[in-house]
Amino acid sequence: YGTAQVNGRLLYNDDRDTIVGSAGLDFLGTPGNVPGLEFGVGAQLYTGRTTHRQDLLTLGVGGTVAYAPPQFGGAGVAADFYYSPRVFSLLDAKRLLEGGVRLQYAITPKVDVYLGYQYMRADFDHFGHLTLDKGVRVGFNAQF
Description:
Elements lengths: L1 E12 L4 E12 L7 E14 L3 E14 L7 E10 L4 E3 L1 E16 L2 E14 L3 E15 L2
Antiparallel strand pairs: 1-2, 2-3, 3-4, 4-5, 4-6, 5-7, 7-8, 8-9
């Protein structure tokens, strides 16, 4: 009825003197009456250092949705959103918000390429909110 997915990422942004890593666990499922639709909920653990030597350690909760119906021949759209409230944030960080959208194309059932936009922002004690990353991404996802 569904799958569990473990993921890991590393973001290095030289323009903003930022390095952030994340590891997550998502639970994904598909409703039986809409082919190609997938929903998920999960958590991401973020850690890193940003501009002005601000350290962060946060746990974000959120979800994802993807739609790639069979009639699109492997093409689809996806979006995700994670939020870490103050109660799940440690060190200098007080909150974290991450969101993204992407267009994807399945090369095989387990590998897809994508073009997407990602936005990540965190709130800190002394500096207010800092945009950690925003921009267009080209990449691939592989599941095994």
